Amino acid sequence: MHYDPIKDKVGGWFNKSLATRKLFYSFLDLLLLRTWHIHKELRKFFAKNPTKVDVLDAGSGFGQYSFWMARKYSQLKINAVDVKADYLADCNAFFKKCGLNNVAFEECDLTNFPKPNCYDLVVCVDVMEHILEDVEVFRHMNANLRPGGMVLISTPSDQGGSDVQGDADESFISEHVRDGYPILEIQEKLKTAGFSKTEARYSYGTPGKIAWRFSMKYPILMLNRSKLLYIVLPFWYLLFYPVCFLLNWMDANMSHSTGTGLIVKAWK
Question: Helical H runs in the chain?
Fold first, then answer.
């Protein structure tokens, strides 16, 4: 299933004004379980690094992670990059109107992005499943980090990530080039790219998998079938989101022996 057209359509609705764009970001923060996990890890990192930090948002998308970081941590200088020029233009205009001058958006290909020793933190959320040349990207990330810098990655795992349960299944998201990483494989690839230390844990355990179906999978399937179902969407979330919120909280605060997502950290 092609996810990008639906994502672009929904994003376009909320890009009408500053208020609706901020509402959109708040909606994503509450809805997307990966955001809960990423915010948790960012809080840990910035608690240990309270002074000036240079951040690369590698694959910034709608810009919601840069927005969250820029508002919450004024000491940051954020370089947000993506391959989608229209997303970047929208983000630059929105952030300028918000007065967030510590974020700059730039078009780039992560497989060829040499900025040696420029960053203390690289944030890469739901990007690596879209890039075939992953080790090349990891090498650039390592080179671009200062000594002791960290990369934080969220990506699907091979334990049912992209909704793939067996060899005969196809990825739920057609734009993915891989269904998910084995937890040891991605750590080995990061070490091959030059990182000295890695940590990885599963996300989207049992609570998260249930929440994902009702907060993301089923609504997207509905929208992919008929545009008329956009009318139903607000009522769907009024009904199901309170339960999804609880399940997201449980997933973000539990450890999981397996899960369909991975949260990976690596240090230079």
Answer: 4-13, 18-31, 33-48, 64-72, 85-98, 134-144, 183-192, 206-212, 218-225, 233-252
Using alpha carbons only, how large is the chain's radius of gyration in Å? Answer: 18
Domain 4-267: which CATH number of 3.40.50.150, 3.60.20.10, 3.40.50.1970, 3.30.70.380: 3.40.50.150
pTM of the model: 0.90
- Indicate the DSSP class of residue 231: T
What separation in angstroms does the CA of 3 have from each of 10, 100, 171, 212? 11, 29, 11, 15
What residue segments make up the domains of the chain, in order of their start?
4-267
CA separation (Å) from 143 to 28, 46, 53, 115, 139? 31, 21, 17, 7, 6
90-119 residue pLDDT tens: 999 999 999 999 999 999 999 999 999 999
Encode burial over 208-235: b for 16+ CB neighbours within 10 A, e otherwise.
bbbbbbbbbeebbeebeeeeeeeeeeee
Question: Tokens for 163?
Answer: 């909704």
SS (H, E, C) 46-106: HHHCCCCEEEEEECCCCCHHHHHHHHHCCCEEEEEEECCHHHHHHHHHHHHHHCCCCEEEE
1 pLDDT band, cuts 50/70/90, is very low
Neighbours of 133 (CB within 10 A): 13
The C-alpha atoms of residue 8 and residue 93 are separated, in whole angstroms, by 17
